[in-house]
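SAMPLE LOG
Freezer: B-3
Tube label: C17
Construct: single chain, 621 aa
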Amino acid sequence: MKEFPSFSIKNFLFRSSLSFHTIFIIIVFVFLPFCQKESSVSENGLEFSGEGNGIKNAKETSSKPNVIWIVIDSLRGDIIGRYNVTPNLDLFAKEGVQFDYHLVNAAWTRPSTLVFFTGKYASANPVNFWDYPTTKSETEAFYRSEKKPLPKLLKSSHYTTYMVGNNPFLTDRFGLGVDVGFDFLYDFSNYGEDTKKITNKTMEVIEEVVSKNNPFFLFLNYNDPHKPYTPPPGFTSRILTKEVLDERKLNYLGEVAFVDEELGKVFEAIKTKGLWENSLILITADHGEVMHASHAISPFTGTNTFYGHGQDLFLENIHVPLLIKLPNSSFKKAVPSMTRSIDLYPTVLDYIGIPIPKNIHGLSLRPIIEGKETTKRTYYGETRFTQGYGEGNEFLLQRSYRFHELGKFWQGSVGNEFYLYFDTNSDPNQISPIRINQIQSIAELKLNGNLEKKIQRFWKQIRSMEPKLPLYHLWVHPSPLEKDTEIQITVPSGTLRMANLPSNVLIEEKGRLIKLRTQDQTPFQISFEVYPDVSFPEFKVWFGKNQVPKSEIHVGYFGVNLSACSKDCDLLYESQSFRPIIHPQTKVHFWKEGGLKKTYENKQELGTDALDILKKQGYVQ
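STRUCTURE (predicted):
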């Protein structure tokens, strides 16, 4: 915890007019969230909450359903059942519940996997979703804040948890990800020709769990058909289609056929070892793959994303398969309505009888499966430079700087955030959008009135579903001796956005600079955001030609003198959601509502192992 700068206690008590007892209570209430108790940490960096250590009856424990969650990286939602490359998945789909319109809420592996294991949108956890390195501050913040990722939660409920696959983002060893709490993690991301190795290790795990009495959670993550597409010989010859395929799609489908064959072996082992009936089995993907030429260059990032992913939220990037076999059930169903990857975490808990945490964003799929769903689910997604909202077949995608942080991908400037509206009923490939450069000027497009209102509503939904930015407040009591009051606010990165401005205050906005002027001598308050939240604002106030000195400016809930602090003063400005007590003689009071600024700015260099992994997986050249 940071130390607070010294300042005059006598002056502080005098200004606040509060008893010492009251001040003590306020200090505890305001600053306690920043002084978190350290968790017990094991040698591998995992936190343990101490929950779930009670002994259960062996029969009760063994009767719980097993959970087998299979992820096939980059598998698009339009592949299964076509091209003759998925016979094992086709059979699985016919024997269980098939979701025809399943969308992931993030568009590349790390954020999408964390959505799986938390049931929350990518921006709800501290791990960034725009750059490959995961900074030390991010991993530490994740371990502090995310107490119940799925593997850890199942472990506390007496499940033995395994990860077998190729996903370098599920370990903190390489500076690429976080450890979500598996008992046993077998990661093959640093190996060539990993698919068969993953299958062989899965067979060993199956043998191991059969010999034990505990229920188990197996997360099986194949990297194929992720690029580079290099199927073994013979698999592309299985493809049957009238579609004209280029070499990349042929090889992509060849890898799909290869993984399907390997999954057939896994399915057979699960059945012959007697694990099939009492297992909840989910099969899905973490994202799709861009294959339409119109999306080759992402309109949001300007990046070449042809036969890639992560640079937009077009349907081919977010529509993926979802197949589920229920435990001890032969229930079959096809579900045409929209479902989301945030829904998988609560679905698993629902079917194995563990209470669903209240602070997640997803909803169990059980009401849909059982035909009891009464409302339609809506979509919200996030990826690099992009946010999106959808209802049914209609989507509004936004070029967004909302989650940017300083680094190699972004140097601090904010450009135009345009919007693209699609109706995939009439435009299934999303190639002919309605483009809105500014929501405020949407009327200039002269759209149908109902459509205009719908787009505005979608825009408001995006705003309501993203985490709120901190809000800065500046209270000014103009001098009765001076006619003019002038304020200048600047930020080194990002831009300033006004949230509240009195009508008698004139404003001149220039991105990172805002000038305000008034001749009214009535005290007033302005409120603004730093967008995105990457730098701290600086301000100056003049009464006439005289600049207000720091000694006459007070900050934060307690109104501490600004001149008392010169370095690492973030906590001093905090007021959380409480308005400070402003002394009648105060000339300027400044405070921040909404938490500490994130400290991401990444200067971390990836190690050789991490770079080798990313190269093998086609992330970097």
